[in-house]
């Protein structure tokens, strides 16, 4: 992401070049940004801030619930699995007809909870 101060500096340089007779696309190219980027940054006489950090992001539909994460933690903490990695836990559970998540899901749930194991 480009900070507002950097954007302002680029826009200032490009506007100065344009006022000196340079064509806008060439001024943008010389500054190292695309014309589209310039137009996105500079609208209605103002340098705009980056809106991505403030964007509303919805949670993924397939995100594990707290209950599902707790099940994975509990299963991983069972005595028979306590010293095994997910690469051995998941196939063992599958042999028993149980599926709580993939190996990568187990790793993803266990990683932030290693201190509590």
Descriptive account of the structure:
The chain has 117 residues and is mainly alpha-helical. It has six helices and two strands, in the order αααββααα. The protein has helices at residues 4-19, 24-31, 35-41, 66-77, 86-95, 103-110, and strands at 42-43, 46-47. The protein has a two-stranded antiparallel ribbon with strand order 1-2. Helix 1 packs across helix 2 and helix 5 (86-95) crosses helix 6. The chain is rod-shaped and about 75 Å long. It starts with a helix and ends in a 7-residue tail after the last helix. The model has no long low-confidence stretch (mean pLDDT 92). It comes from Pseudidiomarina donghaiensis. This is IS3 family transposase.
Summarize this structure briefly.
This protein is mostly helical and 117 residues long. Helix content is 52%, strand content 3%.
Task: Please give the count of helices.
Answer: 6
Distance between the termini: 38 Å
Major sheet characteristics: 2 strands, antiparallel
**What global shape is seen?**
rod-shaped
- Major sheet: arrangement of strands: 1-2
Question: Got a strand count?
Answer: 2
Mean pLDDT: 92
How much helix is in the residues?
A: 40-55%
Low-confidence stretches: none
Whole-number count of domains: 2
Structural class designation: mainly alpha
Strand content: under 5%
Question: Which characteristics define this entry?
Answer:
6 helices; 52% helix; mainly alpha; IS3 family transposase; 2 strands; 2 domains; two-stranded antiparallel sheet; 117 residues
